[in-house]
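Dear colleagues,

As part of the handover before I leave the project, I'm documenting each prediction I ran so the next person doesn't have to rerun anything. This entry is a single chain, and its sequence is reproduced below.
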Amino acid sequence: MQFVPKTISENQPEIIPIKESPPPELVTFDVSGMKCAGCAKAVERQLMQHSGVISACVNLAVEVATVECQPGAVDAEALAKKLTDNGFPSVSRLGGNQQEAEAATVERRRQEIRQQINQLSIALILIILSGLGHILGTKAPILSNIWFHWGLATLALLLPGRAIILDGCRSLWRNAPNMNTLVALGAVTAYTASNAALLFPRMGWECFFDEPVMLLGFILLGKTLEQQARRRAASALQALIALQPATARLVDFKLPILDSDSEELPLNLTSELYNPQYIEIPADRVRVGEWLQVLPGEKIPVDGEVCEGKTTADESMLTGESMPVLKQPGDTVAAGTINQSGAIVMRATRTGQETTVAQMVALVQAAQTRKAPIQNLADTVAGYFVYGVMAISALTFLFWYFAGTHIWPSVLLEHDMGHGASGMGHGAWGMVNQLPITNYQLPIIHYQSSVLLSLKLAIAVLVVACPCALGLATPTAILVGSGIGAERGLLIRGGDVLERVHQLDTVVFDKTGTLTTGNLTLTDYLPIFQNSDWDLNSDINLENRQDVASTIATIDSKLLQIAAAVERGACHPIAAAILLEAQQQGLPLLPAEDFYTEPGLGVSALVEGRRVFAGNAAWMSEQGVAVAAEFLESCKGKTAVFVASGGVLLGVIGLKDTLRPDAKAAVERLREMGLRVMMLTGDTEEAAAVAQQQLGLAAADVLAKVRPDGKARAIASLQAQGCKVAVVGDGINDAPALAQADVGIGLHCGTDVAVETAQIVLMRNALMDVVESIDLGRATFNKIRQNLFWAFVYNTLGIPVAAGILLPATGILLTPAAAGAFMAFSSVSVVTNSLLLRRNFRA
């Protein structure tokens, strides 16, 4: 198949500009006291009212608020105090030890769960006693006595229900009602109505003291299960934070200070390796350049480089790769990984918040606080939800009292109240809810009061509504999805990224270092040096010259020396390949200074006082250096690096790259998923054609000889055609395209700027992880949609049923206790559905 390069028109859509202004400051708070989506919305509203705050995002599932503010404009402690004063105890994470802060948060949540379990135990005991009173009846006069049930209801409100009622009342007083407000109103109203029936028996009302008992019991059961599920969902982040070791063993071998380009350590230190003089210090106080000893079985305390010893490292907690990795002098090691087999001495290269595991923690934490745009509707609804429910409850009471019981008088029949077609009446709990006021026989009342019926329906509306399900729909799914990703080395930056991943239809790969290994090898040199002012005679001993071959070898070496001197100032696979070849040939590096890099074109430097340029043909053209057609032809199918100085071509170096082993499989799998796969490269058409044929791509899906700004323009062009584009890259020259794309996917082995720009970071640097990240993104977003669908449908159907819409036709009545059970079930079901995501991504 003949390769036809696709040209990019100069008339391209505007590229999305990247703001040059100083980045906003991010402040994170641990916020407790939030009970539902209404609380989260209230916290966001309070944060946004503070001057200097640009945006605020509150995550109900992890109880964290992230505030984006103008630099230096917000006092974090004052903002935390404001939230605390308004009923949401908050602590700023600024300046604290991350492990200690997380440990305190985990301990606080454990105490909350322990307290909830204690309250639930009391509530269950009260429910059992209440149930026994109904079941045993006259066989246990004490248990069936109405005053005994009054005592149970009173204890339920004063003991397990006390915190719920107080929080609900405080929230209502602060004009920020929440789920507890609805439960408190329902429980207290039921208790008050039953007290009225008890004190004034001639009104003919029934007592339903068991309703607040069962209502509070079901709510506490649901809250406890929900907290446990949320803790499981957050376990991945806690496991990541736990990877960071607490201490490090600082050693001093009294050796010369090493430079990254200097000689390696002498090999006579083995005797000191296992028994050096050392001191233990906190891992977060290690400084770059210090020497650390790590024994077998210990965690690597910081990122660093192995200087002495040989071992294998378990990096599965960072990359998801289960096979141990061999580490020897010169290799890098990451904080949190486990030294398995041998003692080593390492030199710290990145410490504190700069280590790989700390950056992963930061990425996962950020991902869990960023919402998907699909959540905006739920947030908007949640802001007014509780007010709306209270209004519907009031309207329900007014309708049934003034109209409903007159239109359908049969609904007041006592036997219809107890048994509904769906078993949602009192009989659903296997007990008769009519309790005698005293132990004396009273006449049987065949009709129930319209006030009591209207009150029960109003209470059921209050209790059945569940703002929690709306608030937990998105964050729990993101929590689980980001956790699964972190375990597998896939770092997804947030819910907004997941939504964009779900919309993707095109994936564009960079070639060099992404589709290919990036380990270029030199294949040939073609020195020229015609009309050059470089003095080659100083490097060629003409008297001792044996033959022409030695002369050619010397000229080749000189070309390689010059190219290596220039490329030393670059960070690119081409530069690494040229430097490696020079090192393997034992060539000394020429002195060079004043380095300059033009991404996508080449590099330049002053070498021995002369300005030297090394790069592609376009770079030569910009410098006014003519490149003959035969030179281009000689490098067909390879990456050509032209070297020039003083307007004269010194020579050309040919390099070749190989595809990654999983490149073809990844491309084919993406196609099976219905995605269009393209390749974008700054390399020549001939070099691109080789990769294109190996991958089986169409000529129209390959863009060659594209400069970095041209890459961004190419992505913008695809977006202008309606495509949703993901870009996969690893280099500095990929950063503009990664920023322009709907989703940027960066390989962790790439440059820092590419990793920072990307929305998804692949820790294992495996292309099949591109497939898995998109698959995980789609699955997580589908869970978000399922959760939101359930939350909206539940409330849309549950509230009308609780309001009695089915009562006239079918006799179905949802009692307050049954409504409380459904409310608890709705929150638990959303969290459980999110946890089911793990079934699809088992290792």
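Confidence is low (pLDDT under 50) at residues 1-20, 254-276, 415-446, 537-552. The two ends are 40 Å apart (CA to CA).

All the best with the project,
I.
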